[in-house]
Here is the input.
Amino acid sequence: MPVAKEKLLDLYRTMVRIRRFEERVSEEFAAGNIPGSVHVYIGEEAVATGAIAHLRKDDYIMSTHRGHGHLVAKGGKMNLMMAELFAKQTGYCLGKGGSMHIADLDIGMLGAAGIVGSGIPIATGAGLSARIRGTDQVTICFFGDGASNIGRFHEGINMASIWKLPVIFLCENNLWAVSVPTSTSLAIQDIADRGVAYGIPGVVVDGQDVMAVYEAVGEAVTRAKKGEGPTLVEAKTYRYRGHFEGDAGTYRPREEIEKWLARDPINIFREQLTKTQMLTEKQVAEIDKEALEEVAKAVQFAKESPFPKPEETLDNVYA
Amino acid sequence: MREINLREALGEAIAEEMERDPAVFIIGEDVGKMGGLMGEIGGLYDKYGAEKVRDTPLSEAAILGAAIGAAITGLRPIARMRFCDFMGIAWDEVLNQMTKMRYMFGGKIKVPLTMDALSGAGRRSAAQHSQSLEGMFMCIPGLKIVLPSNARDAKGLLKTAIRDDNPVLFLEHKRLMWGGPKSEVPDGEYTVPFGQAEIKREGSDVTVVATAYMVHRALDAAEKLQQEKDISLEIVDPRTIVPFDKETVLNSVKKTGRLVVFTEECATGSFAGQVAAIVADEGFDYLDAPIKRVNAPDTPVPYGIILEDFWMPDENQLIKAINEITS
Ligand SMILES: Cc1ncc(C[n+]2csc(CCOP(=O)(O)OP(=O)(O)O)c2C)c(N)n1
Here is the structure.
């Protein structure tokens, strides 16, 4: 199915915005402005972007510890994100959550997850909720290859499958869970194969190719909306940086890193778009400039915002 | 007034809340056709169907995880966890998810989720089906914990739990669910607020704070002591341990000058220890004698009548402790 030019540009813009945001996060972390741990999404932008492009504002996503890209793609506000990372009172979570705990229910972002794999059954519950409330909302649940070995993967996907819930389980297989490669943590090549165990389609997709992700998730969303149940989509991708900022990542072979750097999702898509005259050099520069400005404003907002007062520690335990 | 037991009270509360609010639904094992282990929610499956009385696979983590996902997206799940001992399987959902979301997301999310589970010993069910784990759950800020001792309280408290916008753990003592004493319950609609202890028997010599099934044993002991030794016990039932009504306890101790905390937990890390600490801290001047705790030994719960009866705190142990601080 042909995709409208405006949509293609949106996809490109989203990927660039995520990249520029994450690059700046990395810098600000190194400069000591972000007190807590951050896991950036550089290299994996095509996955969140291609997948979330199918969602409405009131559809849901369940994110991970590597969640900034998901949130940007879902329409999260960069200034509130950056302020949260800076632990400021104006941040998404009033400075109480940090990088791994941002939620924004107004845009269907159910939360990032500091406990690997914990989001899977919660996403099943969001799907159940849509079913019981009689809406056509879908939920995309992001998780990593590491998370696919947590027991909740089994319980959560099985439950969604038996009830044919409108949930897309999107495994971002970046080949590493911190220093553990999938070659030693999985006895199979493709996590998607596990779909068989739950009687659902398991689809492998090139996670560096935003249009491939877009297509595969599009089919999964259609299936979900038709009441046919979940799909397990496995996007093969790579994180370009260490597991967390500050991790030198020396456990990964140089050749492997280079191989994946050569398949940068933004470069791949830019080439596709410029080759077909969908995108001009001028637009490329403009999109980049706008993204940099948006990020710069977010940083300025974060820097100028006040810290929470110590006593605010005591608020927000109970509703 | 009509009399029902705690099991019937639970069924009534859930049925009434489902009737009242279409956002309420049930999720758990054997909740459908079977209507719960004791048929306590019988009839609801026929009325609401599999959609809202949702039988699950054996997946405790996914039951609670799915309940969380539903709670944050507009529903009010009742997750039936069967035995509190099984909640270890879904520990992360309790420890890191439902109780943390509101706080770590900056107060922007509500988690209106009720979990109910059987707790307590006395049914010869051995170590993995008999524990009183409220002390462990109590350590998790963000959770409310209800420990009803009778049908009237149970019904009103469970209705309050289902309407609450926070995660609530509702623990049903087995001795009160199977058989168990009946109590008078109003016909019409009523709720019982959280954080309000009730004085189950007024007295002047010793305050006994007791929870769940131990309230009944405390009342028996009070009767006996009154008749045999003319010692007057005041029995305070907190009903919810989080939030905890310390004022009622402190006022009672102010009057009696003596406190025994009588619960079925292992003593270490218990709610009983917390009550003792609060009274030592804030009510020291009222005390005429050391605070006593009568709890279970720090062992797993044993099987069989001989061993389990030895393990469970009873009237004789309570009376012994009271004798120590009144003679
Ligand atoms: C339950 C749990 N175990 C371990 C960790 C520590 N940890 C944080 S991220 C991570 C690796 C996760 O790998 P994966 O799911 O593949 O995601 P990636 O970091 O590669 O994006 C680990 C082990 C955790 N946060 N939670």
Notes: Chain B has two domains: 2-185, 198-326. The radius of gyration of chain B is 20 Å. The domain at 2-185 of chain B is CATH 3.40.50.970 (Rossmann fold).
